[in-house]
Amino acid sequence: MNARDSKTHVVIVGGGFAGLACARELAKSNDVRVTLIDKNNYHQFQPLLYQLATAHLGTDDIATSIRQVFCGRPNVEVNMVEVIAANPKTRTVTTREGKSYQGDFLVLAAGSQANFFGTAGAETNAFPLYSLGEAQRLRSRILTAFEDADRNPKLVEQGALNFVVIGGGPTGTELAGALADMIRFTMTREYPDLAVKHAQVYLVDHGHALLGAFPAEAHDYAARALQKKGVQLRLGIGVKEVASDHVLLSDGTSIQTRAAIWAGGLMAAPLAGNAGLPRGHGGRIDVRPDLTIDGFPGVYALGDFANIPSPAGEGLPQLGSVAQQCGKWTAKNILAEIAGQTRTPFHYHDKGIMAMIGRDSAVAAIGKNRHELDGPIAFAAWIGVHALLMSGVRERIEAFINWAWSYFGRSLPIQVLDRSDQARIDWGEGTQSEDFRASAATQSGR
Ligand SMILES: Cc1cc2nc3c(=O)[nH]c(=O)nc-3n(C[C@H](O)[C@H](O)[C@H](O)COP(=O)(O)OP(=O)(O)OC[C@H]3O[C@@H](n4cnc5c(N)ncnc54)[C@H](O)[C@@H]3O)c2cc1C
């Protein structure tokens, strides 16, 4: 038996906040070897996806190579493959190519995906914002809408410059604010011949307040901040249908748009349905307080992939800080099990929740008691907490803080339309105007 085989083998699926934190902690132990599997070769920093979607940041700014994180860590093997099934009895996972990985311990941390709650047309026509690829696709769609409208201003009447954000939680609120800023500070300068003043951002939520998980003062602050930026709030109204050219609301009205953005909720990643494990709310794996799964020794589920019980009973929220902390905790429990000690229940250190509402507004609810802050102090808290989340992923906190302050100032964003084929808008032969066809023909040299 060689030294490698004598080590306890931990297989981790998912290089997000949870999986990465678990692997980093385990990497410090000489008793363990880790196989870290992710379908991508990068770790994505989800809290800043909306910045990528609104062209304020580039892809490299919010993604880090997973292999680079573990350079110089010989006991961590990184594999870029997609896991399609898990067998929790044997602690084995199977990849799309048919390869299997078996561990003494199996850690499932595959994260989440958009939950459209059966809304008609949403899965086909809406733009979700839960992964790097989705943020890139949305950015390209926004830029395409402006380019098309610039070539044919009549498309503005068909909703070319209407953007409908569905969901008034942190993701939707942050995105609506950033989009309004992008229109106001950048598009007005870059499209001088286009009536950018007709561009409109709508935010729709069936609830009556924005940022539901925050204290009441934050709801009002967020609503005021967005309205000041010109965002049209449609609160207390549901979305009945997302079509390719409009969004139909529950009050019978509809908004013409070619960019309906889904920030309406999430559920566990598809692997959860193929893991042979008990699933609860949001299709997530139900775990015990120590993050193991009843009846399956050596199997853990973490982060957004799991329903993690909380002392108050309602379960911990899907947050990067929860995922990161439970990744570390799991590593400690695994090392305890190897040492013949008992596992301990996960204790979440709640630093609070926060949201940035465009360049000049932020809200934070600090600590377990949700002490409310807004304005520049909340903005500073936002930077501090997100720098902590980023630390350990890469040594670029300084760059991050520099970005944050320049964003707070008025620096020019990155307007690269790099996925034009995927973002193409079919304006429909019947509805295309003569001007548009003539302009398209000129552009293509016909
Ligand atoms: C737009 C947005 C903004 C957010 N803002 C904040 C914020 O401000 N603060 C905060 O604390 N939290 C925020 N969150 C929540 C936070 O990002 C998540 O809670 C956190 O990313 C969850 O971490 P995770 O490791 O469980 O999953 P993820 O980070 O989603 O990682 C899952 C990993 O699993 C991989 N994977 C999935 N399926 C497979 C498979 N079948 N095979 C192989 N690999 C697979 C994925 O590629 C991914 O790398 C935000 C989330 C979003 C979407």
Mind explaining what this structure looks like?
With 446 residues, this protein is of the alpha/beta class. Helices cover 33% and strands 23% of the residues. It has helices spanning 3-6, 17-26, 49-53, 59-62, 66-69, 122-125, 132-151, 170-190, 216-228, 320-338, 376-390, 397-408, 420-423, 434-443, and strands at 8-13, 32-38, 42-44, 63-65, 76-80, 83-87, 92-95, 100-102, 105-108, 112-114, 127-128, 162-166, 200-205, 232-235, 239-242, 246-249, 254-256, 259-262, 266-268, 285-286, 292-293, 296-301, 306-307, 352-356, 362-366, 371-374. It has a six-stranded mixed β-sheet with strand order 5-2-1-9-22-21. It has a five-stranded parallel β-sheet with strand order 11-18-12-13-14. A three-stranded antiparallel β-sheet has the order 6-7-8, with no helix packed on it. A hairpin with a 4-residue loop joins strand 25 and strand 26 (371-374). The radius of gyration is 23 Å and the shape is globular. Residues 429-446 have low confidence and may be disordered. The site of flavin-adenine dinucleotide (FAD) has 35 residues, from helix 2, strand 2, helix 3, helix 8 and helix 10.
Task: Describe the SSE topology.
Elements: H1 3-6, E1 8-13, H2 17-26, E2 32-38, E3 42-44, H3 49-53, H4 59-62, E4 63-65, H5 66-69, E5 76-80, E6 83-87, E7 92-95, E8 100-102, E9 105-108, E10 112-114, H6 122-125, E11 127-128, H7 132-151, E12 162-166, H8 170-190, E13 200-205, H9 216-228, E14 232-235, E15 239-242, E16 246-249, E17 254-256, E18 259-262, E19 266-268, E20 285-286, E21 292-293, E22 296-301, E23 306-307, H10 320-338, E24 352-356, E25 362-366, E26 371-374, H11 376-390, H12 397-408, H13 420-423, H14 434-443
Parallel strand pairs: 1-2, 1-9, 2-5, 9-22, 11-18, 12-13, 12-18, 13-14, 20-23
Antiparallel strand pairs: 3-4, 6-7, 7-8, 10-19, 15-16, 16-17, 21-22, 24-25, 25-26
